[in-house]
Structure formats: C-alpha cells, structure tokens
Amino acid sequence: MNYMRILSPKKMAEDLRADKVGKREFYVYSGVFVIAIVCGVLMMVGIWDLDIAYRPEYLEASDEVLAILASLGSLLLAYHVNKKGDGKRFWYRYLSLGFPIGVVLGAVGFAVFILATMFGIVSIEYSGYADSVILAVLYGLSIFMTWKYMKMVASGG
Predict the structure, then answer these.
(1) pLDDT tens for each residue of 94-153
(2) Across the strands, what pairs with 54?
(3) Rounded to 5 degrees, what are φ and ψ at 140?
(4) CB 21 within 8 A of CB 30
(5) CB count, 10 Å around CB of 87?
C-alpha cells in the first residue's frame, strides 16, 4: 500500500489512472466506507448520539439534511463525471478517491474547529450556526474535490 496516496487525493487519482491501486487496498477503503456509513446512520437516527454540546433540533435536522444532500450529490456528480469520461470501474474509483479526500478534509475540519474554538467563533458547550457553516464549507469542498479528482481519473486529465 502506498501511504502517500492515503494523504493525497491527487496521488490517488494518478495511481487510479495508472491502475496501481490493488484489490486488497480497495477492500480496505470499502470497509472504511461501510463503517462510516453505519456510524453516520446510527448518529442520525439517535442510537449513537455523542451529546457533546447542546444543539437545537432545527440545526441538528438541517445538518443531517445537508449531510445527506452532500453525500448523494457527491455520488451522483462522480457517477456523471465517470460516465462522461471512460465509464470504467466507478465504485472502485469513487471509494478509493473518497478515502484520501476524507482524511484530508477530516484533518482540515478538526484544525478549523480547534482554531474556531480558540478564537471564540464556536463553543464546545453550544453548537450553533458557525458549526453549520463550517460543515457546509467542508461538504462543498468534498463535492468539489470528488468532482476534480474523478474527472482527472475518468478523462485522464
């Protein structure tokens, strides 16, 4: 497994294009994807609720809707880009690209949250609008990165 592609969506896209990502590695990405989906669903339905901060119901619901729309939007956009390109191995590409994009945006999101907390933009006790804006920006970046790198893989450029 090439550890550089875990941290770099561009490197992952290049290696996918060159067909250097092995099946065993893809299965790891698929497993992580399934675990993330299960955890997300458990959090959305309230079975696994972190209850770290107070969160108004309407913000909770809007963030969940935004998460679903961003996930489906990313999936549909990637499918469309892949189909317009060479149309090969969609799931293999989508799940493989999703791993480094998730790692990068997870690290960025964590850093932004820590900085926003330090500067008083967000609060640990109360989760409000600023948190929703940060999530929306991260979802937007996720969709953009998925589009950009899927286009790189599917069209070769």
Answers:
(1) 999 999 999 999 999 999 989 988 888 877 666 678 888 888 999 999 999 999 999 999
(2) 126
(3) -60, -45
(4) no
(5) 10
**Would you give the DSSP letter of residue 54?**
B
Q: CA Rg, the chain, in Å?
A: 17
**From the CB of residue 98, how many other CB atoms can be counted at a distance below 10 Å?**
25
Q: Residue 126 — φ and ψ, nearest 5°? A: -130, 125
Chain centroid, CA 96 distance in Å: 11
d(CA 97, CA 91): 10
Report the alpha-carbon distance of residue 100 to residue 4 in Å, rounded: 9
Query: How far apart, in whole angstroms, are the C-alpha atoms of residue 15 and residue 7?
Result: 13
Q: 89 to each of 19, 41, 54, 60, how far by Cα in Å?
A: 11, 26, 43, 35
Structure tokens at 58: 């309407």
CB 149 within 8 A of CB 82: no
Residue 80 has which token pair? Answer: 């469309």
Tokens (6 digits) for 156: 């070769």
How far is residue 114's CA from residue 125's CA, in Å, rounded to a whole number? 14
Count CA atoms within 13 Å of residue 32 on its CB side.
17
Amino acid at 135: L
